[in-house]
Amino acid sequence: MVLTLLFAVPALAAAYLLLAGRGLSAESARWVAGLAAGLALLIAVIVSVSRPSVDASWVPSLGLRWRFAVDGVSVPLVLLTAVIGLLVVLHSARELPDGGRPSTFLGSLLLVEAGALATFTAMDAILFFVSFEIVLVPMWVLISRFGDPHDAPARRDAGQRFILYTAVGSTLMLVGILLLVTTAGTSDLGQLATNAGRAIPANRQALIAALLVLGLAVKVPVFPLHTWLPPAHTTAPTAGSVVLASVLLKMGTYGLVRLPAATLPAGFAKVAPFLGIAGVIGIVWGGLVCLVERDLKRLIAYSSVAHMGFVALGLSTGTRTGLQAALFANIAHGVISALLFFVVGGLKARWGSVKLDIARPAIRETAPHLGFLLILGLAAGLGLPGLAGFWGEFLAMYAAWTGPTGHPALFRTLAVVAALGAAVAAAYQLRVARQVWVGDEVTDRSGAAEDARGTERAVITVLAVAIIGLGVLPGLLLSVTDPAVSFLLGGGR
């Protein structure tokens, strides 16, 4: 019961806000959403500790079951989603975008959270797909209705790209899931992982793995299927960008682990080199774009493409270290990107834009708390040791250099190119620090940013503590994921 409540609570609150919240004031809607998100976080903690499961008949005529559980792969993502869900609701006290009723905005956020929590706990392939698709419409609402109020065409374009790309990815993923289920004779993800595709012919494994990887690569996104992401991030409200980077992208990488990597290891091994190549190209491409990008929010979006490239590289190695690296980098990017989008969104609300070619006073002097947290996020993003971003990226390159038994020369080359991409990341992060944190010598101080206060400061401080904690004590996360990684790579044994 408690596992069903994990996603039922935010889903029911979202339904109330969307369907019956027309007359609610912004404050009342925020209270409803805050209570639901807080209760979901409490349940997430209970679920993470107790590790319950549920397995009941769902659609008997089709043999589908209501099957949910948590393990070391899903627990960190469940906690991340629940924390981010509460933080974006709390942040709405600082920034409530135009575009519709507050109840619609907050209800959409909660519905995204509910779908993500269901996705991360679903242990049935069909349930996984249904849960995954729940998030798409509310995310489209956040982008197209509550996005940049000054650029309606950009909102429409970003929303249309989001729906078009994700719909194509969903179609490929659904075909792959149906082929997998019908060939294996079960939709139970646990049983599929235990069987590890042994009864499926090699060519069929490769076909199914290719469909699943291609469909999920759109969701991650992996180069060159990433072009929907920068417009979505640039246009979306701050909360929408945070949820998109910290939750939705993680659903794609989680799907890669749970579906092709775990259930079809032999087929995935044939596709993995292409995933690794695409990931590394994304690392370099994203970094080069960031070197010349003039909009800070768009720059952070392109940096996400680069960071998710390290996740793809780690997964492609098919090794224990690589999978651990991917799972760690996944969580680290979720926390770092959330901090950066909160800070950059706050700056955009204060300045009206975050164009890097506009001369402004040094943020370290005018808004020291915002300035420090911006620098912390940038330092974590470039992989500075002692912060969350270091471990996932370093371990992914290490796994590529030492791990794969197949194509060793290729993966060593990918490791070298990824390291060069990390150097490019340092260059563009320092560029941002120079232009925003150091600022320009201007006599007009009207462009000075007001410092973070109250709820906004509390929200970004929580994320800053998480970035430092994961960087100093990586074992806290690695020890949680290690047993599940060993189970998956051992063919479910």
Task: State the gist of this model.
By secondary structure, the protein is mostly helical.
If you had to describe this structure to a student in words, what would you say it looks like?
The protein is mostly helical and 493 residues long. The protein has a domain at 271-493. It is 75% helix and 3% strand. The chain contains 20 helices and two strands. The chain has helices at residues 2-20, 26-50, 74-91, 102-121, 125-134, 136-144, 152-184, 189-195, 202-219, 229-235, 238-263, 265-292, 296-317, 320-351, 363-366, 368-381, 388-402, 408-438, 454-472, 475-489; strands at residues 53-59, 64-69. Strands 1-2 form a two-stranded antiparallel sheet. β1 and β2 (64-69) form a beta hairpin. α4 (102-121) packs antiparallel against α5 (125-134) and α14 packs antiparallel against α19. It is globular. The two termini are 28 Å apart. The mean pLDDT is 88.
Derived structural class = mainly alpha
Can you count the beta strands?
Answer: 2
Low-confidence stretches: none
N-to-C series of helices and strands: HHEEHHHHHHHHHHHHHHHHHH
Q: Give the termini separation.
A: 28 Å
Across the major sheet, the strand order is: 1-2
Fraction of residues in β-strands: under 5%
Residues in helices, as a percent range: over 70%
- Number of DSSP helical runs: 20
